[in-house]
């Protein structure tokens, strides 16, 4: 009898120890921060075709994690009323507190004449184009055929997650990403101002917006969730609303050049301008600071920039910088089934419609767009002095972005 009692006591103690161990482990990896949205609460485009509506398609491990994490929905799924009120207050009249925003100028028009039906049709067409070319075996480009599991963690650093509202945003530099990051900060409450979450996107300083510690991105999952990270990514990709914004690839290149090489940018001068000036303009003994270089009239030309992009040595040294890296390499559109595809050319309408679909339009408004954007009509002027052969090579380099996102081939730039 004594041995039987000891055996039972041992089993009970071991069970208690295991339960405590599991609790401590899940507390460490932060399951309290998971707010997995069900198919009833998840906002999405009416025209979107979303894979994985039900749990039965998930592998056993994913199903276990989903059920375990979903147990916290009752206590965590709704926004605190106090926070909700804070977000609403003042959102109707955004305050431009940043000098740069004041200088650039904004268009505050409300665009109340948007047609939601047209927006639905637009989304259906954009998603259809993307899926057709991803499935078209005759249209190929690097990384197209790999699976989501084959994507290295460091290539998932552009996927920002908001667990509070079930949203995943893939940011593309030079496509209104600063303001979309601001929106994600407001929604996720990942940044506080004097102990209170920001409620107006434009109040968030630019230096905080682009600080990598501000956002929860997919490439941080491994550090947080260890061997379960890929399973959790897949759960979120199935249940959350995923969106990105794109723009004409050549116009995006012009915008990147203007922003990083026509303005004084110390980091880009040292990392990119100095090598370009040495390789393609035969300059030596260049100044160490961008202000000295600009003062001496030493600036990278658009021709230098195009040569740099086409030079095979560039990618051998390091992957393209995110400001001119192709969208298909940043956001993996053939591996991730995006629910919403916005375009900078229709930013105001797309942004308003997306916030409605996410059911957060009462909490905030998207910051107004710049009055002076790099226009598509400028392409002819910018590429006028670029040799035809270079233009044709450049198109091949960015062809996937043109085709996947429905941008017409710039025939006028690719022929004599």
UniProtKB/TrEMBL annotation:
UniProt-annotated location(s): Golgi apparatus membrane
InterPro entries found in the cross-reference section: Carb_sulfotrans_8-10, Sulfotransferase
Gene Ontology cellular component annotations, sorted alphabetically: Golgi membrane
Enzyme Commission number(s): 2.8.2.-
GO biological process: carbohydrate biosynthetic process; proteoglycan biosynthetic process
Keywords of this entry: Carbohydrate metabolism, Glycoprotein, Golgi apparatus, Membrane, Signal-anchor, Transferase, Transmembrane, Transmembrane helix
Transmembrane annotation, as ranges: 7-26
EC class name: transferase
Main subcellular location: Golgi
Topology with respect to the bilayer: Single-pass type II membrane protein
Molecular-function annotations in GO: sulfotransferase activity
Family: Belongs to the sulfotransferase 2 family.
Name of the protein described by the UniProt record: Carbohydrate sulfotransferase
Organism: Machaerirhynchus nigripectus
């Amino acid at each position: 009898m004594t041995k039987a009692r000891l055996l039972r006591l041992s089993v009970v103690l071991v069970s208690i120890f295991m339960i405590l161990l599991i609790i401590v482990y899940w507390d460490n990896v932060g399951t309290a921060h998971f707010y997995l949205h069900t198919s009833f609460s998840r906002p999405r485009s009416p025209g979107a075709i979303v894979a994985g509506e039900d749990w039965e398609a998930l592998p056993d491990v994913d199903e276990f994690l989903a059920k375990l994490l979903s147990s916290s929905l009752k206590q965590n799924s709704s926004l605190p009323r106090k926070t909700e009120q804070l977000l609403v207050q003042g959102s109707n009249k955004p305050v431009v507190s940043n000098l740069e925003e004041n200088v650039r100028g904004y268009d505050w028009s409300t665009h109340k004449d948007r047609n939601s039906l047209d927006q639905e049709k637009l989304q259906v067409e954009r998603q259809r184009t993307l899926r057709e070319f991803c499935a078209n075996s005759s249209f190929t480009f690097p990384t197209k055929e790999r699976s989501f599991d084959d994507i290295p963690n460091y290539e998932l650093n552009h996927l920002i997650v908001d667990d509070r509202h079930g949203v995943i945003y893939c940011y593309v530099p030079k496509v209104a990403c600063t303001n979309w990051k601001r929106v994600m900060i407001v929604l996720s409450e990942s940044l506080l101002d004097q102990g209170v979450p920001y409620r107006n996107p434009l109040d968030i300083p630019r230096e905080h917006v682009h600080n990598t510690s501000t956002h929860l991105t997919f490439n941080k999952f491994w550090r947080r969730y260890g061997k379960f990270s890929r399973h959790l990514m897949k759960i979120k990709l199935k249940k959350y609303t995923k969106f990105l914004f794109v723009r004409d690839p050549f116009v995006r290149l012009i915008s990147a050049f203007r922003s990083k090489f026509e303005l004084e940018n110390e980091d880009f001068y040292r990392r990119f301008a100095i090598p370009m000036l040495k390789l393609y303009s035969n300059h030596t003994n260049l100044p160490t600071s961008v202000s000295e270089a600009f003062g001496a009239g030493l600036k990278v030309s658009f021709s230098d920039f195009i040569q740099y992009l086409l030079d095979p040595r560039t990618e051998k040294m390091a992957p393209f910088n995110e400001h001119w890296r192709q969208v298909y390499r940043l956001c993996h559109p053939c591996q991730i089934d995006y629910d919403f595809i916005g375009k900078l050319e229709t930013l105001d309408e797309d942004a308003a419609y997306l916030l409605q679909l996410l059911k957060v339009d009462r909490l905030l408004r998207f910051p107004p767009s710049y009055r002076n954007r790099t226009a598509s009509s400028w392409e002819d002027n910018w590429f006028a002095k670029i040799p035809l052969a270079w233009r044709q090579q450049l198109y091949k380099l960015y062809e996937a972005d043109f085709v996947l996102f429905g941008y017409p081939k710039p025939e006028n730039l690719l022929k004599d």
